[in-house]
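ok, trying the design again with the full structure, not the truncated one.
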């Protein structure tokens, strides 16, 4: 996985360099081969702390209830009373072309 990320990153850098060369019109020649460093990672397993917890007993129950939900009416502009108010305000404005 690390090597594929390195290759993707190197491909991106190469593409960016090529785009820069074409955009500026300058000439670039590679004079020496590059190399990424070798990295070895080793680690020992960790340990989570232990806890002794005395928690209270909780009794959870369910109960069926009927809830009345209010009815909400929305009047959009161009409909009903809101349209009448807009027409009164429009009377003070010049006609739109």
């Amino acid at each position: 996985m690390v090597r594929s990320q390195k290759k993707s990153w190197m491909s991106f850098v190469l593409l960016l360099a090529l785009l820069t060369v074409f955009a500026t019109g300058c000439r670039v020649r590679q004079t020496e081969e590059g190399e990424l460093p070798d990295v070895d990672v080793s680690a020992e397993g960790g340990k989570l702390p232990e806890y002794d917890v005395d928690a209270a007993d909780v009794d959870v129950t369910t109960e069926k209830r009927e809830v009345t939900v209010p009815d909400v009416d929305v009047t959009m502009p161009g409909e009903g009373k809101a349209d009448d108010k807009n027409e009164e305000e429009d009377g003070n404005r010049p006609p739109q072309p």
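Keeping the full-length input from now on. The longest helix spans residues 2-24.
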